[in-house]
Amino acid sequence: MQAIPANLEPFYPGDPAISDWLREYIQKWQWHVPSSQYYQYGPIDKFLNTIFNEDNHLVEPQSCFRKKIKEADNVVLQMYTAGISDSESDNPDEDEDEDGGNPSVSLLSARDQRRGEILADYVDTTNEGKLYPDFGVSRMVSPWQNQTHNRVVVLMEIGLVPKPIRTRLRRHMKDGGSFTSATTRQLLRSTEVVTEKDKVIKQLKRYLLRLGRRGDGWDVDALGIAMVGAEVAFLKPVANGRRDVIWQAETGTPLQNINGVGWFSLYGPEWSGHMTRMRNV
Q1: Of 109, 192, 201, 207, whose Cβ has the fewest other Cβ atoms within 10 Å?
Q2: Structural domain range at position 29
Q3: Which ranges are annotated Acidic residues under compositional bias (predicted)?
């Protein structure tokens, strides 16, 4: 059995609900950067389900989000799509998903939009259709209440450290380097990594915009999390009117600041603090 390197940062210390197996699994990512984000999905799913464990918490991998828009916009879209025939749009294998996906934000299926069958409630103006963040955490609401939409607490998107940088990071760690060393910081500021981080942040913002105004797909508070390797960034809602918000990146004291976004260690107090805070929202 391989000994755990002494220079590794502990993951989410102090919470007995997190098993040693899970803690060590995630801890290893700083020493051996995952070769695919898919290797991180299982452990992150288990962690989120352990932390968000109240009866009405719901953790959804690849949760489906749709966009709600104003009734007035439907008229324009209906005029635009009315000329498209059924034969152009019918697809017997297409899932209309009337009730499926995360109901925090709703939308007619793309098929219904193309057919001009646009009602006065929900459509997608971006032609993006459904969006699927890697993880969504919600508080479930009884379907028998007037308000039937789950209230989103966390949205999370995971990216990948490019292979050339992964290789160099692994070599550096095996040579006795640490996750917070100057060499690690330099590698994680390389052009390839910055490009990936910017892409993940951009994608996460698209998901967060689908939540709408405060009181639509979310309520008291919500948090967007971007992860690349063992670094994380946090997007938080900042009031821009009575219910409108802008999603602003946390800066604080990060390991590094890239294009106005602070990137923090997955093993640092920022991650632990946000998880503790959001589980109580």
Answers
A1: 192
A2: 20-63+136-278
A3: 87-100
How far apart, in Å, are the Cα atoms of 68 and each of 63, 107, 129, 164? 16, 6, 12, 41
List b or e across 75-89, with b for residues whose CB sees 16 or more CB atoms inside 10 angstroms.
eebbeebeeeeeeeb
Helix, strand counts (H, E) of the chain: 9, 8
- What pLDDT, in 10s, does the model give residues 153-210? 999 999 999 999 999 999 999 898 888 899 999 999 999 999 999 999 999 998 888 8
CA distance 108 to 118: 7
Pick the closest to residue 130 from 203, 204, 66 (CA basis). 66
Question: Do 83 and 154 fall within a single domain?
Answer: no
Residues 143 and 252 in one domain: yes
This prediction's pTM:
0.76
Please give the DSSP secondary-structure letter assigned to residue 227. E
User: Coil, helix or strand for 100?
Assistant: coil
Which residue, 224, 270, 274, is CA-closest to 246?
Answer: 224
- Residues sharing a CB contact under 8 Å with residue 129, sequence separation 6 or more, in sequence order: 110
d(CA 153, CA 124) in angstroms, rounded, equals 23
Same domain assignment for residues 184 and 196: yes
The verdict on residue 2 lying in a domain is no
pLDDT at residue 35 greater than cutoff 60: yes
Residue 164 sits in the same domain as residue 237 = yes
Query: How many angstroms separate the CA atoms of 43 and 15, rounded?
Result: 16
